[in-house]
Amino acid sequence: MRRFTLLALLCGTAFSACQTTQPEARTTIIAPEPVQTCVSVEGLTKKVIPAETKVQYAITQIENPPYEPIQTKVKQIKVVKPAEVIYVNEQGSEIVDICETNIEIGEVGPGVGEIIPDPDA
Q: Are strands 106-108 and 83-88 parallel, antiparallel or unpaired?
């Protein structure tokens, strides 16, 4: 029994001497370089899509007995879809991610349902 204890003690010492320890793994985080995804307005073409309108007439009538009623007919141009400013690249694709913030883009002018002045009047 004594031999066995001595042998176990020697084996335990031998195995502990053979154990290797590894240094702590260091994690290095490298931040990615920022990538500019927006496009400069210099390489784009500005397109103005005109507003879609419909013409309607407003008729007002005032009763005027014993005479004929008084009628007025006014031509109105109502906006159905507002005008829009877009920018396209050389391939004709619409570009919405533009770097400059002080440019006119999107819907412009009178909104849907607004009456615009008649250019013929």
A: antiparallel
Give pLDDT tens digits for 33-92: 777 778 888 889 999 999 999 999 989 999 999 999 999 998 999 999 999 999 999 898
79, two tokens: 């906006």
119: which DSSP letter? Answer: T
Neighbours of 41 (CB within 10 A): 16
Pairwise CA distance, residues 25 & 45, whole Å: 54
Q: Taking the chain, what is the end-to-end CA distance rounded to the nearest angstrom?
A: 122
Task: Name the CA radius of gyration of the chain, rounded.
Answer: 41
| Furthest CA-CA distance within the chain | 139
